[in-house]
Here is the input.
Amino acid sequence: MNLQNNYSNLSNNSLKVLVKRGSSVESIHRAHASICDKKGRTLMKAGLCEYETFIRSALKPFQAMPFITSGAFEKYNFDNKTLALACGSHSGSSVQARTAFKLLWNADIDVKELKCPIPQNRESKLQHNCSGKHSAFLATCKKMNWDRDSYLMGHHPLQKEIFRLVAELLKIPAEELIAERDDCGAPTLLLRLSQMAVLYAHLSKSDQPEFKKITSAMTKNPDLIAGEGYFDSELIKRGHNQIISKGGSEGIQCIGLLGEGIGLSIKVEDGSKRAKHAVAIHLLRQLEWITPSAIEELDEIILQKKPGIYIEVEGELKIP
Here is the structure.
């Protein structure tokens, strides 16, 4: 399905997020969701599981794979904290920026080599939410003797290896993948929601030791994935080492149920962050992947509803 065709033949079982002021609806957001296993089977869905969109930063755990497979992780004596940061979209705290600096320091790489920009009202590239990923990219390039100035180009060996890995997991030729520039400068991929869910199904249950390292790093260091008070970090904390979560801009959210080989992907059509979190909490409640008390805590921390404002999600996952 082409991206421009997403809006044709929309099924009537898509999820709707209603934002109410008092009893009146003020905003409506429409969302789609897919649950798949690592064999590519769709187990449950809401709306269009074949909806095509960019995976954005939810790709990061897979972009971190060459960091391990290249031997850079071991050669430069990195730890779980640096690996977690490479998989995350951090909030730029001093602890997170220092962890990004450690990634560069251990590999003897200058901060100036980072291609991510300095965030607005910040002082350093290390505070960019993708600095962990970029630092891991550079360390991988140094270990492999790859050019570091062009590490973000689609034809670079590092990016081609990431494409190869993703294509292998999805059982498609790498040449079929469509990549475009993300806001940080790195390539991101155009995928179907079902394909995103399959990727997270692989991540959540794999015989590959690299995936196990990544999920262990994420569950043991949740505040390096995003930050205190952010959805991914707060969900992982409440998942009791059974949940991984990574969001992306423009309404993307991916979640994996560890040990089960099941992945969940969500897309809010208009890109609303508030709506994607509301949908995720709604579906987690339906799936019972975390406890009812954890659901209520997430609802309070993440949605932060104001007096007189109500957020309701209509629809549910169904077996196709």
